[in-house]
Amino acid sequence: MASRGGLSALAIAEIAAGAILAWSGITNASTAAALRSIIGGKAPAPGTGTEPITTTAAGTSPAGGTSPAGDTTAHSASAAANQAIARMLAAPYGWAAGQNWADLVSLWNRESGWSSTIANTSSGALGIAQALGHGTTTSAGSLGNEYPSKAANDGIAAAQIAWGLSYIKDTYGSPSAAWAHEESEGWY
To answer: Is 148 in contact with 134 (CB distance < 8 Å)?
Structure first.
């Protein structure tokens, strides 16, 4: 495979595809619309940086109320970007579309609003997947120590999402089963 400056053509294509998916998540546009914007040379909208650390009480959304059942809306640009990451990471599980995808979005809308920096004030659960008590002696990060990796505890969305998907698979089998538990018990 030909390479340019140490990067193979495949690596460059993967980076480009990731950029297109990220753009579509940040701008809350379809992948096709994002591709058209990139080809047209449009710059990303301002104000899509990292979110400040926020907190929420148990059972409430970051906006302060409970997220309604079946809420699959991206409520901010960062939520849309994190959902784009999640869609890519959920694909190998077969959860990137259909009911499992809708239930995953609903679950993490309610739990965290897709914020990688949110902390639950009553339980201490952290981030997108609202991890609690999974940290190790070496995994503490700038936000806490609830995930088993420092990257996740530093607020890296992809690390939190990857862990959350694995947790759902191991604990519930699917996002739909996790959402059903969330609906009946108020947590997953």
So the answer is: yes
* 8-30: average pLDDT: 59
Residue 119, pLDDT > 50, answer yes
- What is the Cα–Cα distance from 79 to 116, expressed in whole angstroms? 9
What does the domain layout of the chain look like in residue ranges?
Answer: 1-48, 52-185
Closest CA to 100 of 26, 158, 18, 168: 168
C-alpha to C-alpha distance for 179 and 188, rounded to whole angstroms: 7
Tokens of 96: 């990137």
Cα–Cα distance, 115 to 122 (Å, whole number): 17
Kindly report, residue by residue over 61-112, the tens digit of the pLDDT. 444 444 555 566 777 888 999 999 999 999 999 999 999 999 999 999 999 9
Residue among 68, 57, 70 at smallest CA distance from 99: 70
The token pair at 163 is 């862990």
- Helices 175-185, 98-112: crossing angle, 10 deg rounding: 40
Question: For the chain, what is the largest distance between any 2 Cα atoms, rounded to a whole number of angstroms?
Answer: 54
3 state DSSP class of 111 = helix
CB distance 185 to 175 below 8 Å = no
- Residue 7 tokens, joined: 């990067």
